[in-house]
Design goal:
This protein is 38% helix and 18% strand. The strands form 4 sheets. A 7-stranded parallel β-sheet has the order 11-12-10-13-14-9-15, sandwiched between helices. The longest helix has 32 residues. The protein is globular and about 95 Å long. One of its GO terms (molecular function) is hydrolase activity.
């Protein structure tokens, strides 16, 4: 009996098994059977050649229309060009050798499958040395039988491993398969009217109708949704079981003193979430909460009030930022908000005051030594830093609360290491903040182990931000007007940002995809001198980017905050956290090179004071294109949650679990964050029920095996640490 975790070698032979392992990272029966077709071609219906994209590995079903052989100019031998057609458009196939098996059978009228990488020569789309299989080839009876079916599966393929080779391997494995024990409980299958796994896997690979494919996909989506929700439920259960030292609110302490000094009222959302944090910080199990909110909604204030509650309880709080610029900005912002309450140890400091200490990798030895002493002794109630905070030699007196800003920018291991700073057997409370609003399905799937709070209400006094697209392809004069607007704002005492997608200098200027028709993105180092010598001549203009020495970056930000710099030409290093209320206008160059959420984040750097904000999205993209429509959508709404959903729809979901953080490709292939909200919700409820009764899945070995297949060891480790 062939089992789902059997190796492919004994079943397919070493050559085929090695090809699948090397080309597609498929090693077991389960790996192969969960390598699903990406589409299905109908027998007799030709694949659209018009839809081919450059550099894509494709397979086309086409008829040979013309064959030409001619001597090659640069070397000896004959080149063969075969023109095939799908009935509406031709495609050129080029062969530079006559020794290719069955090349002589490529004659007008022959029909076949042709697989290769799409290229272009002399403005003609072509496949060079494609692999091919003729459908009337007498030596390929099995292949002909396979294609006699109405629906032909087309698999994600790589060079040297065309879709028909994968299909042949799948059929061979299914032919030797004696059945499988279904991992899903019978009652769940009946409750949701799902196919059994064996039927679903057979129908997804060898379908007889579109309805069969739909039913198979529905079952396989359930496998993926339930697997990830089981992993998250296990993690929630594990986190809740760990002890944490409570930090109950203390009357008359630092938090009360801070609240009394606030010059404004908290928003309803800030008050409500503050009460939730206060209760969870006072608990004996670690808080694990995600705080998402609009740009400028006051997340840092909410986090600070939680940190002050922890300091009142005699413990320390740490804020982890992804960059030194943001860490330094947070430290300054916290000190500004606290005022004299951040002056502990200084003459005349209030009795309840604490100290805010910054620790980054670029500090000199003396600064680091003093900061480390303040942290280890407990003198520093609040510690702000980058990854330098989690180095082994940094020791906390008693860490009770960790605030992680912009979670998606931090590696999993870094966050896990910081958790370990609270002492043996005890976990600190953790609050994760993000200014990128998260669609509901993403929150349930990526952050499903965290409780989620959202701040949607902006504080009173926040000024409106007006956004406009500057389409310089049609209206070049509008760019001149943009520079005039900056001069007008500076003349009124305000400041401006100019954002570019690239730093410049030795950076790779080639556009992605190698499209030579598109110019390189604009760079800070190129734009700044042009502005200084041209439209912004006479203004105090400086640059800021991630490759500058940390002390230079900090000096520029301090100068900008003090209005010694009037215009800051920067990369996205200013995207999050940077708070200069006097900055009122932002010009984003090549705005089409940024994502929707990124544009929203950048825009949030202006309009943070009493004066209205203006954001100008500059682009050369032609009117009427989908890209220009996307930019207009950003200009038309300030609702970050609406934009986040639109961003998801534009980008599709990619790797649901965030491969960028773990470096591991996701095992999820069927589940869609856009279309499968109902499945995700149902799977979440089922996972919670199962894990509540059987946390280690000892009574559900099938579910444990399925979880290992879909969420592999590395991915499970990611979920455990995130």
């Amino acid at each position: 009996m062939t089992a789902i975790d059997d190796s492919l070698g004994p079943l397919l032979g070493k050559k085929s098994a090695d090809a699948l392992a090397d080309g597609l990272d498929l090693h077991t029966v389960g790996d192969l059977l969960r390598h699903y077709p990406r589409r299905y071609d109908e027998r007799g219906k030709l694949t659209s050649i018009a839809s081919l994209e450059l550099d894509e590995h494709v397979t086309v079903l086409a008829d040979v229309a013309k064959v030409t052989r001619k001597p090659m100019r640069a070397r000896r031998g004959t080149m063969t060009e075969v023109i095939v057609t799908d009935g509406t458009r031709p495609l050129s196939l080029v062969f530079f050798s006559q020794k290719i098996p069955n090349l002589s059978k490529l004659v007008p009228g022959a029909r076949g499958l042709f697989a290769g990488k799409v290229g272009k020569f002399n403005k003609t789309v072509q496949l060079t040395h494609p692999e091919f299989q003729l459908l009337d080839d007498e030596d390929s009876e099995k292949a002909v039988a396979s294609f006699a079916r109405k629906l032909i599966p087309v698999y994600p393929a790589v060079s040297g491993l065309p879709t028909w080779s994968i299909a042949r391997c799948v059929e061979q494995v299914l032919g030797m398969w004696d059945g499988i024990v279904d991992p899903l409980p019978d009652d769940l299958i009946k409750r949701y009217s799902l196919l059994d796994l064996e039927s679903a896997l057979k129908l997804i690979h060898l379908p007889d109708s579109q309805s069969a494919i739909d039913e198979a996909k529905r079952r396989l989506r359930w496998d993926e949704a339930l697997s990830i929700q089981l992993a998250l439920a296990q993690r929630r259960k594990s986190a809740a079981a760990r002890p944490a030292k409570p930090s109950t609110r203390r009357a008359g302490g630092l938090l009360d003193a801070f609240d009394e000094r606030l010059p404004f009222k908290l928003t309803n959302g800030q008050r409500e979430i503050g009460e939730v944090l206060a209760e969870e910080l006072g608990g004996t199990h670690p808080m694990n909460r995600l705080l998402q909110g609009e740009v400028g909604s006051g997340k840092t204030l909410v986090a600070l009030r939680g940190m002050l509650q922890v300091v009142d309880a005699g413990k320390q709080a740490a804020m982890l930022a992804p960059t030194e610029v943001l860490a330094a900005q947070h430290a300054r912002s916290l000190r500004d908000m606290l005022g004299e309450l951040a002056t502990a140890g200084e003459l005349g400091a209030p009795e309840e005051a604490t100290r805010v200490v910054l620790l980054t990798g670029s500090m000199n030895t003396a600064q680091r030594r003093q900061a480390s002493l303040d942290i280890a002794s407990g003198t520093a109630g609040i510690v702000v830093g980058t990854h330098a905070l989690i180095q082994d030699k940094v020791s906390f007196a008693e860490l009770g609360f960790v605030v992680v800003d912009e979670q998606h920018r931090f590696g999993v291991e870094q966050r896990d290491a910081l958790r370990g700073k609270s002492g043996e057997g005890v976990s600190p409370h953790v609050l994760v903040m993000t200014a990128t609003p998260i669609p509901r399905t993403v929150a349930m799937t990526v952050y499903g182990d965290l409780e989620v709070s959202a701040l949607r209400e902006l504080p009173q006094g926040r000024s409106p931000i007006t956004s406009s697209v500057v389409p310089i392809a049609e209206k070049p004069d509008w760019l001149r007007r943009a520079w005039e607007r900056i001069r007008e704002e500076v003349a009124a005492g305000h400041q401006a940002y100019v954002v570019c997608p690239r730093i410049g200098d030795d950076e790779d200027a080639e556009p992605k995809g190698g499209n030579s028709d598109q110019r390189p993105p604009l760079a800070v180092t190129d734009v700044l001198p042009r502005l200084v010598a041209g439209p912004l001549k006479g203004l105090r203009v400086e640059m800021l980017h991630g490759k500058m020495p940390p002390e230079d970056k900090d000096a520029v930000m301090r100068a900008f905050a003090a209005n010694d710099v009037q215009v800051l030409v920067a990369t996205t290093v200013i995207e999050v956290g940077v708070n200069v209320p006097n900055a009122t206008v932002m010009v984003i160059m090549d705005a089409d090179r940024f994502g929707v959420s990124q544009l929203h984040q950048l825009r949030g750097r202006v309009g943070r004071g009493s004066a209205a904000g203006l954001c100008l999205l500059v682009s050369e993209v032609p009117a009427g294109t989908s890209t220009m429509q996307r930019l207009q959508a950003v200009a038309d709404t300030l609702d970050g949650f609406e934009l986040a959903q639109m961003d998801l729809e534009l980008r599709r979901e990619g790797d649901i679990l965030g491969a960028a953080q773990s470096g591991v490709k996701s095992g999820l292939k069927m589940l869609s964050l856009l279309d499968d909200l109902d499945v995700i919700e149902e799977a979440r409820a089922e996972a919670q029920r199962v894990i509540a009764d059987d946390p280690d899945l000892t009574e559900h070995p099938g579910l444990a095996q399925m979880l290992r297949e879909v969420v592999d060891a590395s991915r499970a480790e990611y979920l455990e640490k995130s």
